[in-house]
Amino acid sequence: MAQYKYGSYLSKGNSDEYDAEYSPGDTCNNSGIYRCKVCGDEIASNKGNPFPPQNHHQHSAGSGPIRWKLLVFAQQKKN
To answer: Which residue stretches belong to region Disordered (predicted)?
Structure first.
């Protein structure tokens, strides 16, 4: 589970992007921390990069496919 020390650096968001699911190799739409909805493993992924390939993260037989969901969005400052 993602952790934080200083809550003042985080804010609650309601974007539909938190409900989107991604497969291994899909292109990441937002930089941030993603969590596998099946097993709870977490990764950091950068906008525009692919999610880790299937062989990076494995599930036991019968667990279901890897599905990444946005957990924490890394918002970049606008100049």
So the answer is: 1-22
| Spatial separation of the C-alpha atoms in residues 2 and 13, rounded to whole Å | 16
Containing domain of residue 36, as a range? 19-56+63-79
Q: Rounded CA gap, 46 and 33, in Å?
A: 9
Q: Is residue 29 part of a domain?
A: yes
Can you tell me whether residue 43 is helix, strand or coil? strand
- The answer to whether residue 14 is domain-embedded is no
Count of structural domains within the chain: 1
- Nearest 5°: the CA angle 22, 23, 27 is 65
pLDDT of residue 46: 95
Q: How far apart are CA 12 and CA 48, in angstroms?
A: 23
